[in-house]
Amino acid sequence: MRTRYRWSAPLALLASGGLLLSGCARFDDTAAGQSFSAAPVPSPESPPQVQDPGDPSGDDPGGVGQGGQQQSPTSIPPPQGCKDFDKAVIATCLDTVAAVAGLPGDGSTPAALAGERKSGRVVLATAGRDATPFEQLDVVATGDGGLTSLALSPSYVEDQLVFAYITTATDNRIVRFAKGQPPKPVLTGIPKGATGNRGALIGDGRGSLLVATGDAGNPASAADPKSLAGKVLRIDTSGGPAAGNPTAGSAVYALGLHAPGGLCTSPDGKRVWVTDQTAGPDALYRVQAGQALSTPAWTWQDKPGVRGCADFSDLDGELSIASSVGLQNLPVNPDGAVTGKPGVSLDGKGKPPTTYGRLAAMSMISPQLAVAGTTNKDGGKPVSSDDRVVLITIVQTDGGPGKD
C-alpha cells in the first residue's frame, strides 16, 4: 500500500470513505489532571514535507521549507540527542518501552501511558510535549519479565485506574494503580520462571480484562487447566474469574500460550487476537472461549519477534502486528479470517524509508490511530532518541488506506 501524508497542526484523519472524522476539538484532559496542547498529526494530501528544524516559521503545509526549497520525502533529519524531528514520535529517550496504553479522547491531541520493562517506570507521553512521570512500579526484570503490559480500567473515565502486568521477585502478577496512589495487587501467583514471564492485558469491551500469560519456561503448564501459566485469562477488575467464563469459577478463557507478545480486539469486540513466540515459528491466534490455542491464524517461519497488535480491519481490512523488523500487516476478511501473506511497513524499505527499529507494545487510541513502543535498547540498534513512543495512523491514499 502507498501512504501519502503531510504534517499539520490539527487532526485530520480520513476513513476509507474519505470523510473527515475529527477536527480541532480538545483532548479530554481529566485523565492526567493537566491540559494538553495541539499536536501535529498526519493528513493525506501529499508526501511527507518536513520543515527544516532551523526554520522558525512554524507549520509548512505547502511542503516548502526554509529558503523556499521543496523538501524531499526523505528529508527528516536524524535525531539530535533526545530531539526527534519525526512528528509521529511523541516521547523519546526512554528505556525499552514494552508497555503502552492509549488514553481516551477525541484524538486531537494523542496521548498514551508508556512503561519501561526494566525499570518499571510509567510516563505520560503526549504529542507536542515532553514525557512526564506518572508512576513507578517495583519490578524484577529477569529473563523477559518486568513491566510488560499496561491497560486502562474498563471504567477508566470514572475511576482513573490503570492495570499493569509485572514480574516480582516471587511471581508474575497484575496490579492496579492511579496517578499518585500506590499500586495494589489484583491477581498474584502467576508462575514465574527463567523465561516465559512476559504477559499482556486488554479490556474485553464488556467490563472485564483479558490477560495473556507466559508458560514460565515450562511448556507443559500451557496445557494444564489448573495452572495460570500459558493462558488467556478473563478476570473482573478485582482479579476474580469473570462471569460467563467457559468454566464457572475459573479464570481460564483459552490455553496453549508460551511467550505471548500482545492482545488486541476488533473495534466491535467480537474478535480477540493474541501473538505468541513459540519454540517453533512465531504465531498469531484468534482466541475462542474455551478452546485451546492449537491452530494459528498465521505463522512466521522467519520468527520476526511478533509483539503487540492493532485490529484496523474495519477500516483497511488489515490486522497490524508489531515486530522487530517493522509492522506486519495481515489482510483479514469481514469474518475475521486471514486471507493472505502479510505486507511489511515501517521497515525502512518504503517511500520514504521510515523505520523505528524494534516495535513492541501497541494500543489503540481511536479506530484510526494506534500507539506503539520501541525496544531498541534491548537487542536492537538504538538511535540517540531511543527508546520512543510512536503514533501509527490510518490514512486515505490514492491506492487505498495505508499506515504511517
Automatic annotation (TrEMBL):
Signal peptide (UniProt feature, chain positions): 1-27
Protein name: PQQ-dependent sugar dehydrogenase
Keywords (A to Z) from UniProt: Signal
InterPro entries named among the record's database cross-references: 6-blade_b-propeller_TolB-like (IPR011042), Glc/Sorbosone_DH (IPR012938)
All residue ranges annotated as the Glucose/Sorbosone dehydrogenase domain in the record: 113-292
Species the sequence originates in: Amycolatopsis carbonis
Alphabetized PROSITE patterns for the sequence: PROKAR_LIPOPROTEIN
Glycoprotein as UniProt keyword: no
